[in-house]
Input
Amino acid sequence: MESFTLEQLAKLIGGTPLGSFDQKISHLQDSRACDSSSVCYVKEKKFIDTLSQDAGAVITTKDLAAHITSTENFIIVDDPYLAYAKASKVFSAAYNEENKKVETKFGDNVKIGQNSVINPNCVIGNNVLIHDNVSIYSCTHIGDNSIIHSGTVIGSDGFGYAPTGDGWHKIEHLGGVKIGKNVEIGASTAVDRGALGNTVIEDGVKIDNKVHIAHNTIIGENTAIAGMSGTAGSVRIGKNCQIAGQVGIIGHIEIADNVTVMAKTLVTKSLKEAGVYSGVMPIQKHKDSLKFIAKIKK
Amino acid sequence: MESFTLEQLAKLIGGTPLGSFDQKISHLQDSRACDSSSVCYVKEKKFIDTLSQDAGAVITTKDLAAHITSTENFIIVDDPYLAYAKASKVFSAAYNEENKKVETKFGDNVKIGQNSVINPNCVIGNNVLIHDNVSIYSCTHIGDNSIIHSGTVIGSDGFGYAPTGDGWHKIEHLGGVKIGKNVEIGASTAVDRGALGNTVIEDGVKIDNKVHIAHNTIIGENTAIAGMSGTAGSVRIGKNCQIAGQVGIIGHIEIADNVTVMAKTLVTKSLKEAGVYSGVMPIQKHKDSLKFIAKIKK
Amino acid sequence: MESFTLEQLAKLIGGTPLGSFDQKISHLQDSRACDSSSVCYVKEKKFIDTLSQDAGAVITTKDLAAHITSTENFIIVDDPYLAYAKASKVFSAAYNEENKKVETKFGDNVKIGQNSVINPNCVIGNNVLIHDNVSIYSCTHIGDNSIIHSGTVIGSDGFGYAPTGDGWHKIEHLGGVKIGKNVEIGASTAVDRGALGNTVIEDGVKIDNKVHIAHNTIIGENTAIAGMSGTAGSVRIGKNCQIAGQVGIIGHIEIADNVTVMAKTLVTKSLKEAGVYSGVMPIQKHKDSLKFIAKIKK
Output
């Protein structure tokens, strides 16, 4: 695996190295999981609390670096999120190269329909059934007995960009997708790969058609998600939940075990207690709706 | 077609046979349509009213069986829905075998794009146009002059599982999809097959992109459904309706002829009268929305 | 290119010619852009203000024709929109023939995944990356450095039909899709072609998974649209906007530059001022939602 010195990497992403300029860095990782041969980024003070004690180096601002005691190796930048986007590009070449080199492993009794594409560096378990016209990107693991319906896409890049004065800077997605056993995913659903680390769908999860699972979402065992629902990035859903159709879940939200969210509700805050939640305007004759809307606006 | 005795089937799904143990059963059917060589299930008392008078046998509880007079053949179980799920698995082997054996029939002047997959045991009418990368499962009928756009999936399994103490038990979908004449279905839409019986799209229906039509939905003639709308299972929409974009329709709802549902409305009850319906929060400057939400919560 | 006389075309669409019966007409165009060898339609008085001064002929009613002074060539009909639908069919044969004849042009360093279909008469810029199972219809332009993820469909017909007493009359879509440079489009997204003229996605736009961009929508530079959002036809979104997930935008709406629309909001009116907009019912415990709904209905 290609590696960079702290000094080389700082140059590539337009930052200033601090500490051991010769420190070898071979991966970009999430700040909670960063190991001694990797770099991560910290863009706000709150992320220092959960920062790995073992990080090889940290991309951050001068101010934030003053609060980080677990390492002395930094790349100092004005905008850590943009610097992270640039670093993701630096490490993506090696990531893509590695993916091309590793053959996909197939378990016993795997059935794959027509025109489905399974890219290299995947692991497909025993008795997996993949229907027609399915697209599976590299770094996808699918557990035993799972079923993927037609038109579904697993492992596409998450929707992540750093804002710049001149448009959006793409964040290369260097994670994967980990799907457990006895999972079923419906038709025309999309599951994005993780930015760093994996998007995770645990054992026994059932996902309907046209669902959107964003990067780094984690869905707990035996949770069911009905048609046209979607999560934004880094959502965490507990076990045995029932998410009805057309539900939306805002980024970084956590949902406890045994939560039911009724159809079309937008989940805008973490749901820490089991129970049934909803939030939808009632359907009425349109003229009655108009009266109600006029009242709201007063 | 493979058949089972009442006794054999009872054993396979973990129930107790009652009546003629040698009764031959070759199909699993909906309780309203069950014929003398088939079995159906009854999970609630209300379904006894519409139970076929000709059912070969009924999977149900001991209590419910006491109210059924049209047959003396039962498989007695604690959980009829779970037993039905198990029975669907029993009958799916023959169903799948039959589907593989029957060649798809194509009418005159059918045009099929690149990389579209049409599985066996379908019927494609005259002058049908199927664009690229379309996925059509077995048991799909498409009427004359209909058009299917790219990326669309017809006939995927519905989202049906029986709950168990240990996750979800898949219901095998043994029905099909029946699409009428002069129908147009947009890009990346999904139409699920029926669980028992068909999902039906009648003549002249127009469906936009990214629509989700769940199992056993019936859509009446000349109804139009705009982008990103979806139905849950067993919805029945009348003729000449206009369903705008991002509408959701809860399972088992009936919508009369000539109903218009405005964009993003959730239809939570049957609409028995023609007319225009809506139910959506008005868009406002976000600070005004926040004030309104604060008021609701008081 | 095949052309028709005013008299021939009038006969084909069931109207009465007025003016120079021998006027040659070779295209059907939008009323604002119609040139001297083309025909357009005017269905309401308000469209006369923006009618091209150079139109070869106009399909309209007798009453509206009396207000149009820039041409003397008309096809007089009772229902201009239906007549336009019929005219779109007349011109579609030549349009489709032309599309088949022109080879797609590929820039340098274009990467195309497996089972992606690129129809003729497209232009694909330099360094474009198209993933697997993508469907691209004719008349699609993709600018340099743009990325299209798996399962996405570009150029499908818009959802346009003229109502008749006997169902819907399809409007053939004779435009295309113009995608700028540095655009990224996620997985399972659909971008419809223009009815007349193009659907336009300007440079630097980022579109997430499962988004629906309807015919003749124009999206300004560097605007980002998150998952499962959609536009209806002829929407115009400004530059540097942020449209969150599951947002809907009603047809013909205009959104100014630098507008943010929060998740799941339905945009029912033009947003002429930069700022943040929202309109969503808050999520609550379901029993609290029920109380609120009961209050609304009183």
User: Anything to note?
Assistant: Chain A has four helices and 35 strands. Residues 103-277 of chain A form a domain with the UDP N-Acetylglucosamine Acyltransferase; domain 1 fold (CATH 2.160.10.10).
